[in-house]
């Protein structure tokens, strides 16, 4: 079973900008921030289990470590046009510095990750007074042609897009936070999320994970829930369900096979967990794609 983690080389390639026309992207996550602007057609996006329908002029942002995908659902006749979208991926550290005393853009994006007012989807109505589409196109042109200073211009354009996003979130009630967060779950040599992703089909010991992070079980459990909004056990189950979705939607494998492949004890355990997380049965999920 493939890992969900997508490697990104933030040192040698701190940003990417390109266009796409495909409808299906398997569930995955990475350490970059990713923004997608839909030019035409319709896309069905899923972010950490929440589903969004994107229409032309909408934009969606995926924060680092969020599991996201595009689902190839049948589209209505009104949306028969092939999708076209623009994509920008970037390391938050390229964002331009603000004036002294002002909140820094990377910190604001980090704060927004768990704020309900900072929605992943920004609609065409939200963006109607903002030249976001033009910013995306500038970034793609600069990235393709690589003229002198292109990296400075791309970083500036991305900062402009992020600034527009934060202004919209502020209008929706998002508030700045002075709270500083530290990633206690990844080091140069070990990442809890990457480990869970790679070993999700196995019996993972949470006590062992805590030990690898140099933490006692109770502190690890508390800090994990605070940082990711799920218990470690719930996160492991969620990873397994995300991997199961790919097999459900794009293969004809049986539930018995899928349950064994993704780390569940049997099909009954898989069905119970799937319904708990998705709110529907695996069969209903598969039929929704037909």
UniProtKB/TrEMBL annotation:
Organism per entry: Treponema bryantii
Gene3D superfamilies reported in the protein's UniProt record: Homeodomain-like (1.10.10.60), Jelly Rolls (2.60.120.10)
Protein name in the entry: AraC-type DNA-binding protein
Domain HTH araC/xylS-type, chain residue ranges per copy: 190-288
PROSITE patterns the UniProt entry points to: HTH_ARAC_FAMILY_2 (PS01124)
Top-rank taxon: Bacteria
Segments crossing the lipid bilayer: none
Keyword DNA-binding on entry: yes
Keywords, in A-Z order: DNA-binding, Transcription, Transcription regulation
Pfam families, alphabetized: Cupin_2 (PF07883), HTH_18 (PF12833)
Molecular function GO labels: DNA-binding transcription factor activity; sequence-specific DNA binding
């Amino acid at each position: 079973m493939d890992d969900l983690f997508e490697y990104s080389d933030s040192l040698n390639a701190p940003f990417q900008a390109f266009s796409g026309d495909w409808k299906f992207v398997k569930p995955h996550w990475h350490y970059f921030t990713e923004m997608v602007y839909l030019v035409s057609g319709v896309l069905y996006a899923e972010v950490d289990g929440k589903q969004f329908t994107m229409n032309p002029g909408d934009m969606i942002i995926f924060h680092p470590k969020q599991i996201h995908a595009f689902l190839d659902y049948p589209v209505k006749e009104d949306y028969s046009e092939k999708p076209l979208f623009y994509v920008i991926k970037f390391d938050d550290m390229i964002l331009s510095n603000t004036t002294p005393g002002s909140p820094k853009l990377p910190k604001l994006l980090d704060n927004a990750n768990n704020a309900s007012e900072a929605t992943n989807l920004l609609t065409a109505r939200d963006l109607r007074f903002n030249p976001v589409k033009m910013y995306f196109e500038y970034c793609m042109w600069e990235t393709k042609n690589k003229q002198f200073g292109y990296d400075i211009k791309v970083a500036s354009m991305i900062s402009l897009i992020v600034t527009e996003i934060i202004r919209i979130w502020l209008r929706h009630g998002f508030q700045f936070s002075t709270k500083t967060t530290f990633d206690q779950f990844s080091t140069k040599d070990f990442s809890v999320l990457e480990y869970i992703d790679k070993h999700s089909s196995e019996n993972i010991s949470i006590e062992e994970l805590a030990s690898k992070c140099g933490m006692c079980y109770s502190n690890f459990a508390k800090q994990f829930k605070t940082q990711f909004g799920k218990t470690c056990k719930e996160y492991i189950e969620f990873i397994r369900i995300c991997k199961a979705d790919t097999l459900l939607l794009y293969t004809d494998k049986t539930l018995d096979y899928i349950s064994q492949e993704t780390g569940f004890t049997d099909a009954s355990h898989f069905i119970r967990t799937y319904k708990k997380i998705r709110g529907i049965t695996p069969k209903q999920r598969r039929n929704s794609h037909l």
